[in-house]
C-alpha cells in the first residue's frame, strides 16, 4: 500500500520545495491572523514551525487544510497552485494532517478508523474485513506499530491513538505530513518511536511539517525551522545553524507597549495561599500565595496545567491533595458555591463553553452569579429592579457597548461578551478574582479597557490571579509571575527581573 | 478614579424589554381560530368561536394535559425531557382513588380506609409523584444518564405499578369531596392556579432564573455557582408532582381510575410546550407560551370535531402541526443568530 500512486511526486521533488506558502494573508474581524507569511517545505525534510500561542500557526494549517481561504497569497503544492475545499481534498492531493485533538471514532475498531470511506470491498460490494485487517497489519509492520487492527479505538491509550492517526495519515501516501504538537500527550519512549517513524518517512521523501513548542525535540528531529510571531513571518533557518537562545529571541521579540498600564499600588496581606495542590496527571505540587492588591500572572504553554489549577482553586474540578488557605485558614473548596462564599470569582478561559449563556439576554447573563450568591433576593424572589440597576451601573462602568441590556448575548461582540462576564463577577464584590485569558479573542480597544479595569481592581485591594498566553500581557500587568511547565511550577519571577526570554526559558524547557 | 466621568460620554446601557416572543404564538392561535371560524360558516353555516358551550368543552379537554405541560415545560427549558408524566397520571389516579373511596361501596381497596377527608388521597397522590420525580431527577443529576432514558424507565415502571396495584382492576366510587376536584370547570381552575404559580416562579424567582441558565449552558451555570444537580432534582420533582395532580383530577373527573389512564399524555404535553415556543435545546420557553400552545391544541381538536372531520385526520394533522411549529421556530432562531 505504501508505494501506490500518491508517491509519484516524491522522487522528482527530492530536496526541492514540495509545499510553498507564499505571502498568505488572512484577516478576521478586528485581527490580522496572518500577515504575508511564508513557509517553504522541502521534500524529504522535517520542518519545524514554531511560535507562541496565537502566532498564527493553526490559522495557516487551516488554510492548508482548506478550512479557511486566504485573503491574499497562494499555497503551492509540487509547483502547482493548490485548490483545497475540504479535508478530503487535502488528503487526496497528498497532504495529510494530524491535529492536536485526535479525530478518531472511539466506538469503531482501529482498522475501521484507518480505512473509513476507503474500505476494501469484496465481490458482492460489501466491506471485506479480512482484507482490511491485512492491509492494516501491513501498514503497521511498515511503521513498526504493534497494535491489533481489530482493537476498539476507545480502549487505546492516547499514545496508541496517536499512532493510529499517524498510520492513517501515512496510508494516504501523502507527500506532505503536517503534525500539530504530536508529542503533547505521550511519554518519552513513545516519542522515540514517533521520531523513528518520522525519520523513516523523511527517508522516503515525505515533507514533514512539525509544529512544536519543545526546544529539545526541535534539535533532535528538525532540519529546518520557521518562526512566526503575531501572525508575521520572522524567518526560516537551518536547525544546525541556530542556538536555543536565538530561537527564543525570534519567538518573543514582541514590543511591550503602553497597552498594559499596571499602576503601582500598595500590596497588602496574604489572602490566598495554595500549598502542594495536586491533581494526578494534570498538575503536581503547585504552591503559591496571593496578596491583597497583587496581580499574580500565570504564564506557561497551553496544556501546562494553568487553567486546571485555577479550576481546582475555584472548586470546578477540585484537586485530590494539597491545601487551600484563605486568610490563613484551611478551607475545603469542593464546589464553586463554596469558593464564592469565600469571596472568589472566576472568569473562565472559554467564553462560549463555560462563560456565556448565548441564548439569554445580557441581564440574565450578568445576574446569575449574584443570584447564586444569595445577596439580592427576598425568600427566592428576585428583586429585578435592583438587579437591573446594578447591571446598568456596572455595564456603564465597564463601557459595555450595547444600547439595550435585553439584547441576546449571542449578538454582542467578543469584547462586550467578555465585559459582561467580568460584570457578572464584579457584582458579587469578590476579594479574589481569578482571570483565565481575560483578553483572548477581543479587539485592541476592549483589551486595553479590560487591562485598565484589572489594575484598577487591584488598586482597590482585590487579589488577582491572571492566567494569560500573551507574554506582554503577563509581563506588563503582573507584580509577580508564576511560570508553569507540564503540570509543575517551573519558577517565579519578580516584576523587576522578568522579561520574555526568562519566561520562555521556564515555560519551554 | 476613572469611573465617574464615563457615564457622561456615551449612552448608558439600559434594560429595554422588547415585545414578548409569545406574541408570535398568540398570532398563530388567532389565525387558526379564524380559519375554523371561516370554515365553519362555509361548511356548517354556523359560528365556531361564538359558541360558549363549545369553548368551555374545548378548554376543559386540554386543561388536564395543560397541568402536565406546565411541569414538562420547565424540564425542557432546563435542557431535559420527561416521558414519565402519562404513566405517573395512571399510577397516581389508581393510588389516590384507592384512598378516596366511599364507604357505601362494598368492595373498596382498603375497606378500613373509606370516607377519608379529601386532603388524604390528594396528599398521598402528590407524594407518590414526588417520589417518582425524585428518582427521575436523582438518576439524571447524579448518574448522568440522559433524561430520555431515565424517564423512559420511569414511564414503563410506573405504568407497571399502576397495573400491579389492583391487579388490573379499576378503582371506583370516590367520595363526593374527591369527585368535586374533577367536576364542572374545576380542572380549568386548577390549571389556571398552577400556571400562574409557575409563571411567577419562572419569571421572578431564583428557581426560574436557574432553570433558564442551566438549559442555556450547564457548564457556565455550574461555574457561576449554581448547584446544577440539586436544581435538576427539584425540576423533575415539580414535573412529576404536577403530573400526579393531573392524575388526581383525571380520576376525580371520571369517578374511576384505571391503570391505562394518561396514556400518551406525556407526548401531548411535550407537544404543547413545543408549539408554545419552548426549545428542546433548552434555555428558551415560558409558561405563557405553553398555555397558548395548549389552547392551540384545544382549538384544533375541537375545530376538527366541529367540522365533523374524522378523528384519524385529527391525529395526522396534529403531527404535522407539531413538526411545523419546530421547523418554523428553528428557522427563526437561525435567522436571529445570523444577524449577529
Summarize the structure.
Chain A is 35% helix and 25% strand.
Detail the topology: elements first, then pairings.
The complex is a heterodimer of chains A (509) and B (340).
Chain A: H1 8-13, E1 17-28, E2 31-42, E3 46-50, H2 57-64, E4 72-77, E5 80-81, H3 87-92, E6 95-98, H4 110-115, H5 129-143, H6 158-171, E7 176-180, H7 188-203, E8 207-211, H8 215-221, E9 224-229, E10 232-238, H9 244-252, E11 270-279, E12 283-291, E13 295-300, H10 306-314, E14 321-326, E15 329-331, H11 336-341, E16 344-347, H12 351-355, H13 362-372, E17 377-378, E18 381-382, H14 384-397, H15 414-426, E19 432-436, H16 444-459, E20 463-467, H17 471-477, E21 480-485, E22 488-494, H18 500-507
Parallel strand pairs in A: 3-8, 3-9, 6-7, 7-8, 13-20, 13-21, 16-19, 19-20
Antiparallel strand pairs in A: 1-2, 1-4, 4-5, 9-10, 11-12, 11-14, 14-15, 17-18, 21-22
Chain B: H1 3-9, H2 22-44, H3 52-77, H4 85-98, H5 119-142, H6 147-165, E1 171-172, H7 176-179, H8 186-204, H9 206-216, H10 218-223, H11 228-254, E2 256-257, H12 265-275, H13 287-306, H14 311-338
Helix pairs in contact in B: 2-13, 3-8, 3-9, 3-11, 3-12, 3-13, 4-5, 4-6, 4-11, 5-6, 5-11, 8-9, 9-11, 12-13, 12-14, 13-14
Amino acid at each position: 500500500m505504501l508505494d501506490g500512486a500518491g508517491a509519484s511526486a516524491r522522487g522528482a521533488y527530492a530536496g526541492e520545495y514540495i509545499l510553498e506558502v507564499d505571502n498568505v494573508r488572512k484577516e478576521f474581524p478586528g485581527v490580522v491572523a496572518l500577515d504575508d507569511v511564508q513557509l517553504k517545505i522541502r521534500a524529504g525534510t522535517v520542518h519545524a514551525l514554531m511560535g507562541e500561542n496565537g502566532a498564527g500557526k493553526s490559522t495557516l494549517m487551516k488554510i492548508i487544510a482548506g478550512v479557511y481561504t486566504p485573503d491574499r497569497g497562494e499555497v503551492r503544492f509540487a509547483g502547482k497552485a493548490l485548490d483545497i475545499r475540504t479535508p478530503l481534498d487535502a488528503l487526496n492531493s497528498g497532504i495529510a494532517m494530524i491535529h492536536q485533538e485526535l479525530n478518531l471514532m472511539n466506538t469503531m475498531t482501529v482498522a475501521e478508523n484507518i480505512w473509513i470511506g476507503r474500505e476494501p470491498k469484496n465481490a458482492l460490494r460489501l466491506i471485506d474485513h479480512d482484507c482490511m485487517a491485512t492491509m492494516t497489519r501491513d501498514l503497521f509492520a511498515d511503521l513498526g506499530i504493534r497494535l491489533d487492527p481489530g482493537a476498539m479505538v476507545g480502549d487505546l491509550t492516547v499514545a496508541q491513538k496517536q499512532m493510529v492517526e499517524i498510520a492513517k495519515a501515512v496510508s494516504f501516501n501523502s507527500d506532505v505530513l503536517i503534525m500539530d504538537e504530536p508529542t503533547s500527550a505521550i511519554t518519552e519512549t513513545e516519542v522515540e518511536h514517533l521520531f523513528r517513524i518520522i525519520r523513516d518517512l523523511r527517508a522516503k521523501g515525505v515533507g514533514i511539517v512539525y509544529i512544536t513548542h519543545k526546544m529539545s525535540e526541535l534539535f533532535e528531529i528538525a532540519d529546518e525551522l520557521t518562526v512566526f510571531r503575531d501572525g508575521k513571518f520572522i524567518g526560516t533557518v537551518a536547525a544546525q545553524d541556530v542556538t536555543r537562545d536565538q530561537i527564543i529571541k525570534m519567538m518573543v521579540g514582541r514590543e511591550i507597549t503602553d497597552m498594559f498600564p499596571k499602576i503601582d499600588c500598595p500590596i497588602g496581606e496574604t489572602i490566598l495561599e495554595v500549598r502542594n495542590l495536586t491533581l494526578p496527571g494534570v498538575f503536581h505540587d503547585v504552591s503559591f500565595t496571593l496578596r491583597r492588591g497583587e496581580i499574580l500572572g500565570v504564564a506557561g504553554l497551553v496544556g501546562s496545567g494553568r487553567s486546571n489549577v485555577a479550576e481546582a482553586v475555584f472548586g470546578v474540578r477540585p484537586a485530590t491533595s494539597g491545601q487551600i488557605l484563605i486568610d490563613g485558614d484551611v478551607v475545603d473548596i469542593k464546589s464553586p458555591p463554596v469558593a464564592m462564599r469565600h469571596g472568589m470569582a472566576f472568569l473562565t478561559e472559554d467564553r462560549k463553553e463555560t462563560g456565556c449563556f448565548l441564548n439569554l439576554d445580557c441581564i440574565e447573563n450578568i445576574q446569575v452569579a449574584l443570584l447564586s450568591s444569595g445577596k439580592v433576593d427576598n425568600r427566592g424572589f428576585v428583586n429585578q429592579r435592583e438587579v437591573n440597576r446594578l447591571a446598568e451601573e456596572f455595564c456603564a462602568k465597564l463601557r459595555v457597548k450595547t444600547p439595550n441590556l435585553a439584547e441576546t448575548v449571542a449578538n454582542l461582540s467578543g469584547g462586550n461578551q467578555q465585559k459582561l462576564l467580568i460584570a457578572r463577577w464584579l457584582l458579587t464584590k469578590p476579594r479574589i478574582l481569578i482571570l483565565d485569558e481575560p483578553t483572548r479573542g477581543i479587539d485592541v480597544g476592549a483589551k486595553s479597557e479590560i487591562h485598565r479595569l484589572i489594575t484598577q481592581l487591584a488598586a482597590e485591594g482585590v487579589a488577582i490571579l491572571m492566567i494569560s498566553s500573551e507574554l506582554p500581557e503577563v509581563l506588563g500587568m503582573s507584580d509577580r509571575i508564576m511560570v508553569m511547565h507540564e503540570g509543575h511550577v517551573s519558577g517565579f519571577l519578580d516584576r523587576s527581573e522578568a522579561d520574555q526570554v526568562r519566561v520562555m526559558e521556564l515555560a519551554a524547557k | 478614579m476613572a469611573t465617574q466621568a464615563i457615564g457622561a460620554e456615551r449612552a448608558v446601557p439600559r434594560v429595554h424589554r422588547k415585545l414578548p416572543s409569545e406574541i408570535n404564538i398568540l398570532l398563530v392561535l388567532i389565525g387558526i381560530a379564524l380559519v375554523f371560524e371561516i370554515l365553519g360558516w362555509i361548511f356548517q353555516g354556523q359560528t365556531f368561536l361564538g359558541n360558549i358551550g363549545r369553548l368551555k368543552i374545548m378548554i376543559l379537554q386540554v386543561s388536564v394535559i395543560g397541568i402536565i405541560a406546565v411541569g414538562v415545560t420547565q424540564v425542557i427549558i432546563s435542557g431535559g425531557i420527561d416521558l414519565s408524566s402519562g404513566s405517573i397520571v395512571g399510577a397516581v389516579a389508581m393510588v389516590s382513588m384507592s384512598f378516596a373511596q366511599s364507604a357505601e361501596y362494598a368492595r373498596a381497596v382498603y375497606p378500613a380506609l373509606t370516607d377519608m377527608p379529601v386532603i388524604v388521597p390528594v396528599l398521598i397522590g402528590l407524594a407518590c409523584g414526588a417520589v417518582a420525580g425524585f428518582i427521575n431527577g436523582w438518576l439524571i443529576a447524579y448518574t448522568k444518564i440522559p433524561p430520555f432514558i431515565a424517564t423512559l424507565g420511569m414511564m414503563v415502571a410506573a405504568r407497571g405499578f399502576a397495573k400491579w396495584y389492583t391487579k388490573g382492576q379499576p378503582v371506583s366510587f370516590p367520595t363526593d369531596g374527591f369527585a368535586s376536584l374533577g367536576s364542572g370547570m374545576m380542572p380549568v381552575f386548577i390549571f389556571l392556579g398552577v400556571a400562574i404559580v409557575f409563571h411567577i416562579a419562572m419569571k421572578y424567582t431564583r428557581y426560574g432564573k436557574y432553570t433558564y441558565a442551566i438549559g442555556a449552558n450547564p457548564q457556565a451555570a455550574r461555574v457561576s455557582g449554581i448547584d446544577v444537580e440539586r436544581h435538576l432534582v427539584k425540576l423533575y420533582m415539580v414535573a412529576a408532582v404536577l403530573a400526579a395532580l393531573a392524575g388526581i383530577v383525571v380520576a376525580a373527573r371520571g369517578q374511576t381510575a384505571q391503570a391505562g389512564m394518561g396514556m400518551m399524555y406525556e407526548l401531548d404535553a411535550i407537544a404543547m410546550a413545543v408549539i408554545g415556543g419552548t426549545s428542546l435545546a433548552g434555555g428558551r420557553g415560558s409558561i405563557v407560551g405553553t398555555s397558548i400552545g395548549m389552547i392551540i391544541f384545544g382549538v384544533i381538536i375541537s375545530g376538527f370535531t366541529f367540522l365533523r372531520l374524522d378523528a384519524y385526520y385529527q391525529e395526522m394533522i396534529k403531527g404535522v402541526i407539531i413538526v411545523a411549529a419546530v421547523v418554523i421556530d428553528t428557522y427563526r432562531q437561525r435567522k436571529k443568530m445570523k444577524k449577529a
